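Case study B.
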Amino acid sequence: MASKPRVRVPKKAKAGDIITIKSLISHKMETGQRKDKKTGEKIPRLIINKFVCKFNGNVVFSSDWHPAVSANPYMAFSYKVVESGEFEFTWTDDAGETVSKKAKLTVS
Amino acid sequence: MKRKALVLAGVGAVALAVPSVMTFAAEDWGQYQVGDKRSGYTFAKAETRAIQDDDFENPGMLWVEHGEELWETVDGEAQKSCKSCHADASDTMKNVGSTYPVFAKDIGKLENVENRINRCRTDNMKAKPWKYDSRNMLGMVSYVKRQSFGQPMNVKVDGDAAPWFEKGKEFYNQRRGQLDMACKHCHVDNAGNMIRANTLSQGQGNGFPTYRLKWQKPGSLHRRFRGCNKQVRATPYKTGSDEYLALELYVMYRGQGLPVETPAVRN
Amino acid sequence: MKKTEFSRRTALELIGGGVVTALLAGTFATSAQADAKLLAEAIKKAVGEGAMKEGKITLDLPEIAENGNTVPVGVSVDSPMTDADYVKSVHLFAEKNPAADVASIHFTPASGVAKAALRIRMAGTQNIVAVAEMSDGTLYTAKKLVKVTIGGCGG
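Model:
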């Protein structure tokens, strides 16, 4: 998947803080409803259908996406800080390909 | 006499009160308005503005980041990247977005950022030119123009650029297409009025490449010109053509003083 | 004479208009029923057939969306978000899209608050429906009408 992800996670936080995590990834999110203007043939569906956020290996948030999610999908959500560690974000498309990104969080 | 004066004063107060109410109602657009010039930002809905306001949430930034990567990527037979010659873009490209298109003496014509990039690619890098609205071109143009972010538009329209400026101005005011409309009919005479369900803007170019919700990706100013021309049922010119280069110069001149907003987010 | 003609034309127009309106109303009723059926099926597939209560969910959507391709949505559900009592999922539906499913958002007690934001596609003016699934299995629902502007300058 030739998509580029961006994530925004605070680098530092205090235990008990509820932080906001934002993510954005470049992807056409081809719905499968559109037709090629020249050939008239349907363009096959190809979307990112799953987004998962893990912290220290445990799933803390996830989302299933359908073709009604806009191109270049944006997702913002919350997380309650407990300890230092690493987030891992994974996007999976219809072809089963994945893109991942990691971000560290330090508890002060 | 005294009573008459009071009445007049009363009328005066009412007359004064009306404009002041209007002033309070008008929004303060800050940097997005310079005199009568208003960025397309000021015509967009709050939700759309919010997407542009946050650098992280702005999906156009995905293309800026792609351009940043390309800047350092070696391509072509000469084995060069942009960085090989131009080093740090934040330093060497910082006035490009606010001053282009410029008259390039060495080729004897007006050149915008897209065409300049492709000339660099073919002549200096010995690499294939990029298509005008390709992911790579949009990424590189967005990255280069982003280095002028916030700077006031300041294009040169005299000297060698003067004939191009005049051509652009003529294009802007020339009726065309089955609807027999010139650019100015929408963007000067009717800016701020509704065209069906949308508000017409002044058609400013300071935010391009712009991420359009309709396109679901960024697009060039010339792509927007093509769209406008098609809307009035006129045959559009090619992206990068002399006609649109001249028009680009005139449109940028209309926005002199407005800040470079690349990548703007619009409907 | 002129006046008579005028009123007769008006009368004819009114009758004609009535017929058109009736026909359109019929079409709308049929498509609305079809939409409702698709929506019900999508909800059933996501959460089963349990009873749904109103409340707890806040949907943050523009009243008028500038473009149906990118409509920002914020959703939050009132919950303590503890191991014993939390929001498992929120499912979003657009009743008039080609497929009603939009997205399913899965929270955990680690979320702290059940709150998320994303951008969605809407094929025209319609209700956005949210269904929240709590950890004890209870279901809540909320909906909000979003008008999608069509027309103006494409390009």
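The domain at 5-103 of chain A is CATH 2.60.40.10 (Immunoglobulin-like). The remaining cases will be described in the next quarterly update.
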